[in-house]
Write a structure and sequence with these properties.
about 40% helix; single chain; four-stranded parallel β-sheet; globular; about 140 residues; alpha/beta; 5 helices
Length: about 140
């Protein structure tokens, strides 16, 4: 299914139709695993709010792409474990509703992965077609 998430390289963006929740919890309990339900994301602002909520961003988060990059590089408030996995559920909807937002998220994520790779901290982003009520 998924191999070697300990890597901190550019194979950090994943697309899946499988229910990966239990797999990740059983095999990567040493990582922060954060899950976003994509039912309400229709634009950049909705995505920023969802990420800020699940990652507990500080109040000064500016809700724009530069601020997202900055907060994803900081994460002092998160008690970061050995790595981080962000799972976006119902991912098909983000690609249907706001594909530019999803694309910008990938671009931003790759920038942050480059930063954290220097610290040897793996960062992974999963786009999962699973729905929250089927986990």
């Amino acid at each position: 299914m998924i191999n070697k998430l300990e890597k901190y390289l550019y194979d950090c963006i994943h697309f899946t139709t499988d229910n990966i929740n239990n797999y990740l919890k059983e095999n990567y309990n040493n990582f922060n695993i954060l899950i976003i339900d994509n039912n309400s994301i229709e634009n950049d602002k909705d995505l920023f709010n969802s990420i800020a909520n699940v990652m507990k961003f500080p109040d000064y988060f500016g809700k724009n792409w530069d601020a997202l990059d900055e907060c994803l590089r900081d994460l002092d408030w998160l008690e970061l474990k050995e790595g981080l996995i962000l799972v976006i559920l119902n991912s098909k909807k983000i690609w249907q509703r706001c594909p530019m937002t999803a694309g910008k998220l990938i671009e931003s994520w790759l920038t942050v992965v480059d930063y954290w790779s220097k610290e040897k901290v793996p960062f992974h982003l999963f786009f999962s077609e699973m729905e929250i009520d089927k986990l």
